[in-house]
């Protein structure tokens, strides 16, 4: 038992080193390429720092294919690797070439009605295709396939919706992960998922210090991870409740601002500002 603990601590330390090194080199690369966008304070900040997750994933895949096999789950760990890498790449392409004049499902489909195909729409279509593929890998029935595909796809988009304030997406990821691992029916899932905390912690610090932004690359990756963890962790009844919650949030976001909702809730506003270098001004921008 002691040897196993030492082994996992050593592995985690290695992932911290990998994450620190990849963060340093990738952010230098993005900065030299002037890959920047305005943040909520209208400052030019390095964006798409979520590419660090893609570098991390190359090493994490080796770990999962070695230690992750201890968890006997249908489609594991290939399902997680496929959706995390696929959505990270799609997010990076959207960061590179995306037209940010359009947002939300209504915005992208409205653009399509005018004969304009947005990168966001392409990402949504390809993302759902990947979600469906992963759902087929992990599910035991047709109903499970549909429910799980929708959970994964909407989880990805939900974290994308949150990525309007520094640290918000990662804080939501960490809270979601804690709840999932505390309630999960899969023993050991938290242990093999622990290395993910290394790049998450580093990018959270960079985000809160206003040194970089995750971009769609990072938010898509995190949403994909949460979606897969959810569909593995719970039975159909709970997953249906999760799906209903995601649908309600998305319907709300089409007409209202999530940022405004958070700012009006004392606890959520406190959590949103926790650790920020500068406190944001109240706004009512549309998501």
UniProtKB/TrEMBL annotation:
Transmembrane annotation, as ranges: 45-63, 75-93, 128-161, 173-206, 226-252
Keywords, ordered alphabetically: Membrane, Transmembrane, Transmembrane helix
Name this protein carries in UniProt: Glycosyl transferase family 4
